[in-house]
Amino acid sequence: MTTLLTDHLRAMAAAFPDKVAYQVTDGGQMTFAEWEAESNRLARALVAKGVAKGDRVSIYLLAEEALRFMVAYSAVHKVGAVAVPTNTRLSDGELERLLGHAEVRVLLTDPELSPLAHRLAGTLTALEHVIVTPSVEDGVPPWKWAVPGSDDAGTFQVEVSGDDLADILYTSGTTGLPKGVAIRHRNVALIPGAPNPNYSGQCWLHASPLFTFAGIGFIYNPMQLGLFGVYQPKFDAGRWLEVVEELRPQFVFLVPSMAQLIVSHPRFDDVELSSIAICAIGSAPLAPATLRALQERMPEASVSNSYGMTEAGPAFCSMPKGESLKRIGSVGQPVPPLEVRIVDEEGRDLPSGEVGEAILRMPGREREYYRNAEATAGTWKDGWLYSGDLARLDEDGYLYIVGRKKDVIIRGGNNIYAVDVEAVLLEHPQVVEAAVVGIPHTVLGEDVAAVVVLVPGAATTAEELREHCAGELADYKVPRRIEMVTELPRNATGKVLKARLQDQLAATPPR
Ligand code: AMP
Description:
There is one protein chain. Helices cover about 25% and strands about 25% of the residues. With about 500 residues, the chain is of the alpha/beta class. Among the domains are: about 5-140 and about 160-185, ANL, N-terminal domain (Rossmann fold); about 330-405, Luciferase, domain 3 (Roll); about 410-505, GMP Synthetase, Chain A, domain 3, CATH 3.30.300.30. It has a 7-stranded mixed beta sheet with strand order 2-1-10-9-11-12-13, with helices on both faces. Strands 14, 15, 16, 17, 19, 20 and 21 form a 7-stranded antiparallel beta sheet that branches. The radius of gyration is 23 Å and the shape is globular. Adenosine monophosphate binds next to strand 13, strand 20 and strand 21.
């Protein structure tokens, strides 16, 4: 029998009803009993609205509504319905296409986002109900939904099996058919539920949007490790450091752009970070300089850049403590049952050290795209997930991600991996962020361009940065064009939108 995420919540509510389950920085908290009771109430309210097993329910909420997001996520699973965590940064058209593709029947939202949701309800035939949270000004607890027809807070769970759909996580929606990763109850838990729940009173600090793969996992992962969750709705490095001082988290998760802002913050060297035992970073390449800075400030902690993707689900690589600095650039070793192979264009295995596409297998835990057979067939072949990431395995089986397959820059026949050049730029003391992309070149095919964000008040020039790169990199890898900007375009997860940077570079001639 599959243990459901909601089973773990029930067990926590029975064992530790009055303990804090979640806290939102500057925005309230919720105990396990409150979470359990409120999700039972909301589940009944959804049933009263006609929601049945298998119906899709969108959770479309601002980050500040994190506690209600968590209650909603549990309620949807209690009804046996399918959660569609929805990106709040989508354009109107993108949102419409996504909700239409998922045939969402009910949408849970907040007062600020509700006008758009109501408008879409007029055009999307499947969308029958838009349920809006009470507004904060009404003095309602930040976890409460207050939907009519939901007075009974007793245990509620529609029977579901491991094969039933739990979530659909959309990874793109800008072109073609939207790609939503279909996740079933048997593979929704990233960390398996513990038969004997525990509570250490320590916490896990997180700041990624809840509708992303990293964010949705954060809803149940802390409790599965006996921790409570602390959520920072809008990341700010200074406030993050303060929260670490105040709440002394044992576990923190960051995306590389947050990590970079933290290490370059003026208070980074003074703040007490000793509570942190695990500093997990993930979702994009991490500059070695940033990893080193974090590890040096937290010598006892396990600091590592972990590799994951929505399509792969619970595919873990692990970096043994103390190995991080010896294996700079590695995301660790695949933890069985995950298998990773590196293959060439024809799908043949490559020897260790050689770069090819990483393909992944987790028998019995495969995911697929929702209502997109073509994309599914192109991504999963014979049980192997073709990640689209270029990577290599070293002789000890450590995995190194070198970039997206489509992001390799081929300059006059030489392959250049953006991550290598970005790492060198980030070694420069005045560079806070760097993104390297290919730009068209009439003779070479492609040339290398870099877009950087400098520390405030920095006076370095493109020429100086090029000299810095020339000291560390082969000549053909040195960016010919370097632009300085105040901010890099990023998606909600924090990944740099490289295609947008390429468009911007094409639209602005070099100065
Ligand atoms: P998503 O499913 O949106 O989380 O994106 C997954 C993709 O993010 C992967 O296919 C990689 O391209 C990238 N990614 C995730 N983790 C890492 C990492 N630790 N290092 C480099 N790239 C990463």
